Amino acid sequence: CIPYPTALTADYNQIITWQAPAEINVSAYFQVEVNNKSVFVYDSPIASYAMFDFEGTAEITIKAARDVKWVDIRPKSLEIKAEFQDSLIHFTLTKPCKLSIELNGEFLNQPLFVFAGEPEKNVPDRKNPDVIWFEGARVHKPGIIEVKDGQTVYIAGGAVVEGIIHAENASNIKILGRGILDGTTYNEIRGETR
User: Fold this and answer.
1) CB–CB of 136/159 below 8 Å?
2) Which residues contact 142 (CB under 8 A, 6 or more apart)?
3) 75 vs 85: CA distance, rounded Å
């Protein structure tokens, strides 16, 4: 098992990843490495997804759970060309982007979403009383997050926040961070059944 470090540097390249909460399921469909370092791949009913930030060049290697006959990387306007053999896929990124990796023409059969961002700037001060901060590597279940004028919700990388954000007659609100806001429990929060 390869640990998921908070930051890695190789030559001039910087790769930033985040440790996922222990109770979050890893994808059974894909494994991802960036510059030979493991990136956690989240599982969901509709897709697998991996997230990291980088500067410089990111060499992406994906191992699929099945053999690859061809690969579509969307958006196609980015013209990213992948090499593949057996179950391995390889391509290179030189700038941040959001991608959908689709195998063998089967978009509906568990694509891989890759969110490759640039390193965060101007992270808010955790001690600021107007910052609602969710720590990384944890699952948070706040329910409804009430946000007022001038407040910032910051979801740190590796955090999973199960809830929704509510603001009424409020302005100058920010929602920042590399974590996950999961609103799929919205009906349960409202006391409704699906």
Assistant:
1) yes
2) 134, 161, 162, 163
3) 22
